[in-house]
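It would be a great kindness if you could assist me with a short task in structural biology. Thank you for your consideration; the sequence and its tokens are set out here.
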Amino acid sequence: MQRIVIFDMDGTLIDSATDITLSINYVRTHYYHLDDLSERFVVDAINASERNLAHLFYDTDHYDEAAKALFEKHYHTQCTQNVRAYNGITETLVKLHSQGCLLGVATNAPSKFAKRMLSHLQLSQYFTHIIGADNVEHPKPHPQMIKIHLEHHGFRPTHDRAWMIGDNKKDMDAAASANITGIFAAWGFSESGNGDYLVSDPCELSAIILEEVCDA
């Protein structure tokens, strides 16, 4: 039996809020000539189930390509300045990996930033795939990212087990659409949400996943 464990990134594996906010505010200042936003506002906007980020972040209904390029240039350097893995994440990845679990990442962030940050934190080695929004036609809440992971490993619903771990409703909706177990990460950007499990500490994940396997 295979055990496939798929993680969201921002707000689940890593706390990237400070660097995201700094890069957004850089674009606000140098392109749109707007005042800075708070980190809390940025995090809440990112996690809102329905939102227009161009309007919320830049007070425009159209995110100019030049502004997008400015953000990406700034964030390429900024994204590794303050980012950290949440307490317990590294230990959890090590344990799951040592128990033969197949680990992956499904993030709505661009894959180049995801790989850069996870490599910087020495976490990328634990994942068979790191899939970003640029790698799919339909990002979360669509289940396409999850299905790529499952199909690569030849997932058999009657024999194997799979989990999606994330801090956003989109993660849980994607898990439900893919017919796998959703674990809501309440230690990250959101303290509450709906899933098959709600977990407040990454260290609880191993017990849930490995116990489910033992009980299967």
About this structure: DSSP finds nine helices and eight strands in the chain.
